Amino acid sequence: MSNNIAxxxxxxxxxxxxxxxxxFCADSRIQIHIQGIYHGFYIKELDVSNKYKMHFKHxxxxxxxxxxxxxxxxxxxxxxxHKAAYExxxxxxHCPFGLYEYVRPIEVFGDVICxxxxxxxxxxxSESLFRIKKAARLTGVDEEKLTDELRYCENTxxxxxxxxxxxxxxxxxxxxxEKITSAPDYVKPSYTSSKLWEILxxxxxxxxxxITLKQLSKxxxxxxxxxxxxxxxxxxxxxxxxLNNLRLKAxxxxxKTTSKNIIEIAFDCGYQSVNYFNRRFxxxxxxxxxxxxxxxxxxxxx
Length: 302
Hints:
302 residues, alpha+beta, Arc Repressor Mutant, subunit A, 2 domains, five-stranded mixed beta sheet, 14 helices, 11% strand, globular
């Protein structure tokens, strides 16, 4: 496969990075995730879908299903990002919930432009089970569900082939990046807008979690106050209001389309207090959640 990529690259026809990632992940249970770091990485030829920009596997969703689990995952990710970006060396490691991951920073012209993660692997099942038990006890995440989900992970005793995959991907990303950015007509993309949309993609997917600006700033290597200003300028509201609007919109949809009770909806949408949810809902819609549902039901019947 690497030979085919090289041939097409030399001919001036670039295979989209998205297509290459799809090929490597087809018929496999690995998770490939690319974390953009340097502003030059944000060029359309290197753009990939959200499933390659964050962890989407069901195991990770279960691990992040409680506030404590989510915070533990975020802390682990921040540590890995900073270790890779500043040490500029690849490494293997376990996530707190027992999965194995290979982390490889990709450096071009002296700058780490992105960090490549290949994970969702189980190398030593007994080690994974031990970590799951420990993490579940600390975070309140369902140990049984995590343990059962291990069968859908990439179970292997040899991680060397994933290093090879990472090397192929790194070679292609470097080649593509160098070719495009050295072209006479190359125009450097807006770092601010590209970074902001990537962060918002993450927030829009994880709005039910206890996300803070501080966490986002560390995850995406951007100053916390500056990020707050960017969001405020884009949406004319502070971050906590943007997050609250996402949650209320989701709650509105659940009230209209499901028979879930108000408590379930509040917690499903990321609220830790039903009273707080009711207050925020009333402030935005001028009716309580129950009144809103009754009104929508009557309207539908009519």
